[in-house]
Amino acid sequence: MAFRSENAGFSLGQLVRRNRTALIIGGLIGLMSGGLFGLLLGAGVGVALSAALKNALGNALNPQDAFFRATFTVMGKLAKADGLVSEAEIQYAREVMNRMGLSEERRREAMQLFSQGKDSDFDIAEVMRPLSALIRFRIPLKLMFVEIQLQAAMADGQVSEAETQIIREVCGLLQMSQAEMAALMARMQSQFSYQQHSYQSHQGGFVSEQELLKESYGVLGVDESVSDAELKKAYRRLMSQHHPDKLVAKGLPEDMMQLAKEKTQEIQAAYDRIRTARKNR
Questions:
Q1: Which of 228, 230, 242 lies closest to 184, judged by CA?
Q2: Chain segment 9-47, per-residue pLDDT in tens
Q3: Which among 107, 100, 119, 97 is positioned nearest to 259, based on CA atoms?
Q4: What is the pTM assigned to this prediction?
Q5: I need a labelling partner for 161 at 20 to 30 A (CA). Which of 11, 15, 33, 199 fits?
């Protein structure tokens, strides 16, 4: 005889298979305390507790939620690092929310997290340790997280010593080495300059092609003397690391897919500029 749940839509046999451990433990406890009726009641309670526990753990150990929470709290911490939150830093946070296309509810959540991070007694380890545990072996996610924070730190045009110390702490909690941090900071500084000069150029301002070309190499994290093969290898590695679909599959909040797309567009533009220059030399 097959019993079916109106909501779940599966048979008692399937229920048993999915919750076997909870059924056995709950049933044994019930049998010992109340006979056949206790057996049935205990099994039901065991399944209910198992489902509640799985749901609670699922919410607590969700990489996307952990990434979102850490992103805006750490961003708030960086903004307050120098004692005064600048308008440029607030504007950057707003721009990130706009580019993510957040709903009003999600935007309010992000703003609350940003404000929480600004509190003087806020310890970023509270949000970084859970995130680090969830993305320990997901290097692209680690890089994406630090890149977002470095962009926030650069929003006012420079990265202060206080901000650098926070970035250093973040990298340490993510188990990234000082060498990895230094390389990432250098690449992000080049990317920031490239963005600024590209915008200036599009607005009709003068920016030398040589300067843009130099920054393009920096965006790819390579020296101007690299071979074509090494250049392509660096380009492909970065494109793979920032592929939006891959990042979302590894735990990047879907809201942030646009940020990943923009990264790949910048990497592609820098690579195309270098290739064109090399063909014409």
A1: 242
A2: 333 344 344 455 555 655 555 556 555 555 455 545 555
A3: 100
A4: 0.73
A5: 199
